[in-house]
Design a protein that fits this description.
Layout lengths: L4 H12 L4 H21 L2 H4 L5 E3 L2 H5 L4 H8 L5 E3 L3 H7 L1 H9 L7 E3 L3 E3 L7 H4 L7 H21 L2 H6 L1 H19 L5 H29 L2 H28 L3 H10 L2 H9 L4 H6 L3 H11 L34 H14 L1 H26 L1 H4 L3 H22 L5 H18 L8 H29 L2 H32 L3 H17 L7
């Protein structure tokens, strides 16, 4: 049977996988975007760090009272103060004020602080600049919420248009957006403007990361794809290392934000050498454009002059090559609605997808909560975050070996059970034993990082190929929802007790592990 032009082009595209410059350009793009993703995703730990703070008493500060004197006289806790006549206390002086306070029969009312003072020897963060403490503490968590929500839009909904208008165009839009909003985030004087810019930053990061990932998946196949994806995923941890180094030398959050914005320079350079995805062009029946790109990187490639082109507007990709196998002509939303309907119509698949929703949510919310709990643990965040990044790499590498001997179901139950035990053990550790608390949290984080990899592989095993991509995408979205809620768990429960967030997270892992035992594995 005579091959069509599109099939010749697909064969040539497979030959490019052996090591052409095109593959290395796409791979370089992915490493740069993954590193940028790591930089931005956990920058919240440093940019939104909570410095030591206390109530500001202007009358006492202007009278040159020391911080210790102000705290001993006026402050009930970090968010509340005694309602004294502070002008009178200034007139008395500190020593007589102490006597005056001690001799009071009735203590004054306790009121919330109108403003706060921060320890200026630490980092400059958005928290001390915009007073995001006490009744405004959730504003801090909102900055991470809008960022992740932006990533969901950029990664999912807006990524739809990359299927229609091309990978490179959408990638350029994401880069241009980041070039604008990244530096602006470092200069805006208003909190509301910063929140909007964080949302747009999330959209740009999501768009760049998903588009680059798609380009790589269309450029390479089989075993080489797995190796390159593993390297790309590890660059996320490298990004965390870079973030730690930047934060250490740049104590001002605006300087750190500006430096992260400049980290997009490698992506900008790579884009100048990047071509559109030939596989996408073939799927759009734009064969001449695809041929030009393939000939650019495959010098010996020639299409026989006697072969036939595609006389119709049908796709040239086979079902295994095409990114859409479910009625492509009827559009993205129709195809995905049919897939979702299929998942929830069959009782066996419905049970699997609901349990996997839970596991992906729990993995994300617990992983991020353990990272953000650094403020509750009051440990050295540079050491803590360095171990977190090493944890990520070791977890992904070691679980690959474990899965050679154990099934995904057994592996994920073991990781959740281990995480549960470790997080519950924190309850028995005194608050002063910071090293032990940090060690237990980091080992628990190791197991949760491993469970992320298991979840991805488990989904690919549980669902048939015609709905596997939909199941994977929906579970990634559930993971994003988990990361959205993590800072609220840490801030709200951490205000009640420093151990409360890890206790809740431990309980969630136990529940997730229990439901994993109920998953039927036959497809």
């Amino acid at each position: 049977m005579q091959l069509t032009k599109g099939e010749y082009l697909l064969q040539a595209l497979d030959e490019l996988e052996t090591g052409s410059i095109f593959i290395w350009i796409v791979f370089s793009l992915n490493t740069a975007t993954s590193l940028l993703n790591g930089l931005n995703s956990l920058s919240y730990v440093f940019i939104a760090e909570i410095p030591e703070y206390w109530c500001d008493i202007p009358e006492l500060s202007e009278a040159n009272w020391t911080i210790d004197q102000i705290k001993s006289i006026s402050i009930n806790n970090e968010c509340q103060q005694y309602d004294y006549n502070y002008t009178h206390l200034v007139d008395l002086g500190y020593d007589k004020s102490v006597q005056y306070v001690n001799n009071l029969i009735l203590m004054p009312n306790i009121i919330f602080c109108s403003s706060h003072m921060f320890n200026e020897s630490g980092r400059s963060t958005i928290v001390n600049e915009w007073q995001l403490v006490c009744d405004k503490q959730l504003y801090r968590a909102n900055t991470f919420l809008v960022y992740v929500f932006g990533k969901v839009l950029g990664n999912g909904i807006l990524g739809i248009y990359a299927d229609q208008y091309g990978r490179k165009k959408f990638l350029i839009i994401g880069v241009l957006l980041y070039i604008i909003v990244g530096p602006l985030s470092a200069f805006v004087p208003w909190f509301w403007a910063y929140v909007i810019l964080k949302f747009l930053t999330g959209i740009s990061i999501g768009a760049m990361y998903s588009t680059a990932y798609t380009l790589l998946s269309e450029a390479v196949k089989n075993q080489k794809r797995k190796i390159l994806f593993a390297v790309v995923d590890s660059m996320y941890s490298v990004g965390i290392f870079c973030l730690i180094s930047m934060a250490y030398f740049l104590p001002n959050w605006r300087h750190l934000q500006l430096t992260m914005a400049c980290s997009s320079l490698p992506i900008i350079i790579v884009i100048f050498f990047l071509s559109e995805s030939p596989r996408w062009l073939i799927s759009q029946n734009r064969l001449d454009e695809a041929q030009q790109i393939i000939e650019k990187y495959h010098k010996s490639f020639m299409i026989p002059t006697h072969i036939e082109g595609n006389p119709t507007n049908e796709r040239t990709l086979s079902s295994s090559d095409s990114p859409a196998t479910l009625n492509e002509s009827k559009g993205f939303f129709y195809r995905n609605f049919k897939s979702v309907k299929f998942l929830f119509t069959h009782s066996d698949l419905r049970k699997k997808i609901l349990i996997m929703y839970l596991t992906n949510y729990v993995t994300a919310v617990v992983s991020y909560s353990l990272v953000f709990s650094i403020d509750n643990f009051k440990s050295n965040r540079y050491i803590y975050m360095s171990i977190v990044s090493v944890n990520e790499i070791l977890a992904h590498m070691s679980i690959s070996v474990v899965l050679m001997f154990l099934s995904c179901q057994k592996s994920i139950v073991i990781t959740y059970t281990a995480g549960f035990i470790l997080m519950m053990t924190i309850l028995a550790v005194p608050e002063e034993s910071k090293s032990i608390i940090m060690g237990l949290a980091l080992v628990a984080k190791f197991f949760l990082s491993a469970s992320f990899t298991i979840n991805v592989i488990f989904i690919s095993e549980l669902f048939p190929s015609n709905v596997r991509n939909t199941a994977m995408g929906m579970n990634f979205v559930m993971g994003q929802f988990g990361s959205m809620t993590a800072p609220y768990i840490v801030d709200l429960l951490g205000y009640v007790a420093w151990w409360a967030p890890t206790t809740l997270c431990g309980s969630l892992t136990l529940v997730a592990g229990f439901f994993c035992l109920m998953i039927p594995q036959e497809i």
